Amino acid sequence: MAKSHRGICNIALGDTLEQLLQEFIVRFNDVQKVDNDSTFKREVAHIIEMIESPKFVKKHDFALDINGTLFQKKVWTVLCEVPCGETISYEALAQHIGMPNALRAVANACARNELALLIPCHRVVRKDGFISGYRWGTWRKKILLQREQKDKI
């Protein structure tokens, strides 16, 4: 997780801490590892809980530093309304934002999401229910969706 002075600006999923740190070093100019910040630790714990027990995690109140176009932010706002344990198709998402022919643009907005889990782009699937494209690997997307379904009450 990366944080600016305005809020959380990046949540990446990876295999090792070293890999993620290297990605952050490449992505951001001034990366500093934080060990003694209680707010940061609470935010990281919340993210981990979203992975391990997604259905039982309360909605976050974290400050976010979201960078994107107006269109991307519109897509991401709708994504945040998709409940845990449910999915939405790219087509339905495009219709929901009033642009039914913007499937490719919606998919691209999902791909540009830098806040894994907080903006739940993993909940977007193809119209036929097939799990496709995910910035952090379709296998991770499948696991996240399975965990959300498992915890569905």
UniProtKB/TrEMBL annotation:
Any GO BP annotation: methylation
Keywords, sorted A to Z: DNA damage, DNA repair, Methyltransferase, Transferase
Gene Ontology terms for molecular function: methylated-DNA-[protein]-cysteine S-methyltransferase activity
Domain Methylated-DNA-[protein]-cysteine S-methyltransferase DNA binding: residue ranges: 71-149
Secretion signal, residue range per the UniProt entry: none
Gene3D superfamilies associated with the record: Methylated DNA-protein cysteine methyltransferase domain, Winged helix-like DNA-binding domain superfamily/Winged helix DNA-binding domain
Domain of life: Bacteria
Catalytic activity line of the entry: a 6-O-methyl-2'-deoxyguanosine in DNA + L-cysteinyl-[protein] = S-methyl-L-cysteinyl-[protein] + a 2'-deoxyguanosine in DNA; a 4-O-methyl-thymidine in DNA + L-cysteinyl-[protein] = a thymidine in DNA + S-methyl-L-cysteinyl-[protein]
EC code: 2.1.1.63
PROSITE patterns in the record: MGMT (PS00374)
InterPro entries: MethylDNA_cys_MeTrfase_AS, MethylDNA_cys_MeTrfase_DNA-bd, MethylDNA_cys_MeTrfase_DNAb, MGMT_N_sf, WH-like_DNA-bd_sf
Recorded family membership: Belongs to the MGMT family.
NCBIfam families: ogt (TIGR00589)
PANTHER family: BIFUNCTIONAL TRANSCRIPTIONAL ACTIVATOR_DNA REPAIR ENZYME ADA, METHYLATED-DNA--PROTEIN-CYSTEINE METHYLTRANSFERASE
Stated name of the protein: methylated-DNA--[protein]-cysteine S-methyltransferase
